[in-house]
Design a protein that fits this description.
alpha/beta, Rossmann fold, globular, GMP Synthetase, Chain A, domain 3
Length: 528
């Protein structure tokens, strides 16, 4: 490891032991000193020019030069309030120009970005703040209530947006002068990206400055092949690494333009694609299916690249999209632990119904539960090695994900004779619905906080529209009577307790739950 620039050494001290890391294959040949913010913003601005449009967002169109000036000012402001390299800075806000500027500034000063979804609730935020030991938090003024309600945060909250005296972006704009990017090591931690654990306890994945550039040099360079004329858009929040790559890292690496949408429901997304001439689209299969019936009213002739990830892309959806648009959807599987997509295919290399082949630099195999490699055509556990890999922050579950140097993603795949990988299912209790990961225990715990619920069990059941649908089975306490009104009350309760998209769209009242003789819940029987 290189000499760290971090004065606050928390992140480096809480990396897993090196012998618990996955084996890195084709490690990138980046220099020892590297700041991803400088590479993606400063150097790209020099290449494409200050006047080139970088972002189209709620705040308007922003050029590379204007964004650079804002990031420069925010960086000076951060240092003026005592931010030190290695400090953890939480970001809470929807996709817009402000959140992008803040993300770049955090990396520029050598701090560690802790990305969150702006709709996360107090209980979820408390877990993140505790695990990451957050010291500063940038919070959009519209999403302040859930944040200020957390009890375990003693750091500084920086409210942004609104243009009032309390807006730290207004305060930051008063700073002038040139900010020198922090002289970070290429293996200094730059990002803590949280992923749902199957137990409901989130895990913080740790990514270096070099990792951020690596996903551009692998998936984007080989599969996506973007250029400066591209306009990127999509539905995933940049709090998800899928969205961060799609809407920040890849377009800035290419010198392109990114359309940042605070709300990206399919009808809105389609309208904005047409309005702004979007050429590259990232979203989940659910959204592609929802957009299809709307094409007659809103044609989008500029689209040239469509990428799907986050959940299984059904062959029927791929074929319907291709028949309607002539565009072959690029399918892919990635993981927050790996930062982005590592198996995919593009153009004439695409085989409908197959995820694809390993992206150059990655290796993948199929194993059984006893770590025996399986022959081609047999389903088993997907294991991956590459230039990125899983590093959990101070988490014993590192040993569950990384075994014998391989990253085990929790997916069941088949590898065919032609080296293509085909998705089969998840191997754990994680529910993937409309591209979002939902941990069954997290929803169960939210239900159990309602006075009417004595027991709960949550599973994911197959659903044509969403891939899987969150389904709850509830045993009521004595004195409560099952009804449609109570069902809606419980669903609304979950929405108010955790991120709303995790609520059970199906909810059944039952007398008992299936259990073993020792009292352990048997979720598989509910799935059957």
């Amino acid at each position: 490891m290189f000499r760290s620039a971090h004065i606050d050494t928390f992140a480096r001290e809480n990396l897993p032991p090196i012998d618990k890391w996955p084996e890195l294959t084709s490690p990138p040949s980046y220099p020892e000193r590297l700041n991803a913010s400088e590479v993606l913003l400063d150097k790209t601005m020099v290449r494409v020019g200050r006047e080139k449009t970088a972002l189209i967002a709620a705040e308007g169109s922003i050029s590379y030069g204007a964004l650079f000036d804002q990031v420069n000012a925010i960086s000076l402001y951060l240092e003026s309030i005592g931010v030190k390299p290695g400090n953890r800075i939480l970001l809470r806000g929807p996709n817009n120009a402000s959140i992008v500027a803040l993300w770049f500034a955090v990396l520029r000063v050598g701090a560690v970005a802790v990305t969150t979804i702006h709709l996360q609730r107090t209980g979820e935020l408390e877990k993140i703040a505790e695990i990451a030991k957050v010291q500063f938090a940038f919070v959009d003024h519209r999403f302040l209530d859930e944040w200020i309600a957390i009890k375990n945060y003693a750091g500084k909250t920086l409210i942004y947006g609104g243009g009032t005296d309390s807006d730290v972006l207004v305060a930051a704009n008063k700073f002038t002068g040139v900010h020198q990017p922090c002289d970070t090591a290429s293996d200094d931690v730059s990002l803590l990206a949280f992923t749902s654990g199957s137990t409901g306890i989130p895990k913080a994945t740790m990514h270096f400055h070099r990792d951020i550039l690596t996903i551009a040099e692998t998936f984007a360079k080989e599969i996506l092949q973007p250029n400066e004329t591209d306009v990127f858009a999509g539905s995933p929040p940049i709090a998800f690494t899928f969205g961060l790559g799609a809407l920040v890292i890849f377009p800035f690496w290419a010198g392109a333009t990114s359309l940042m949408l605070e709300a990206a429901a399919p009808p809105i997304l389609l309208k904005e694609i047409a309005t702004h001439g979007v050429t590259v689209l990232f979203t989940a299969p659910t959204a592609y299916r929802a957009i299809l019936p709307l094409f007659d009213e809103t044609p989008v002739p500029t689209l040239r690249r469509c990428v799907s990830a986050g959940e299984h892309l059904p062959k029927s959806t791929w074929e319907a999209w291709h028949a309607t648009t002539g565009i072959k959807i690029i399918d892919g599987i990635g993981a927050t632990e790996m930062l982005h997509i590592f198996i995919s295919a593009a153009d004439d290399e695409i085989i409908p119904g197959m995820t694809g082949r390993v992206v150059t630099g990655f290796t993948a195999k199929i194993f059984d539960e006893d770590f025996n490699e399986l022959p081609r055509g047999e389903p088993g556990l997907l294991a991956v090695k590459g230039p990125t890999g899983c590093r959990y922050l101070n988490d014993a579950r590192q040993s569950n994900y990384v075994k014998n140097g391989w990253n085990f993603t929790g997916d069941i795949f088949i590898q065919h004779e032609n080296d293509y990988f085909q998705y089969q299912s998840r191997s754990d209790d994680m529910i993937i619905s409309s591209g979002y990961n939902v941990a069954a225990p997290e929803v169960e715990n939210a239900l159990l906080t309602h006075q009417a619920v004595m027991e709960s069990a949550v599973v994911g059941l197959p659903d044509e529209e969403r891939g899987m649908i969150v389904t709850a089975y509830v045993v009521l306490r004595p004195g409560f009577i099952a009804s449609d009104e109570l069902k809606k009350e419980l669903q609304d309760h979950v929405k108010s307790t955790i991120v709303p998209f995790k609520y059970p769209r199906l909810l059944h009242f039952v007398e008992t739950l299936p259990k073993t003789t020792t009292g352990k819940l048997q979720r598989f029987r509910l799935k059957d």
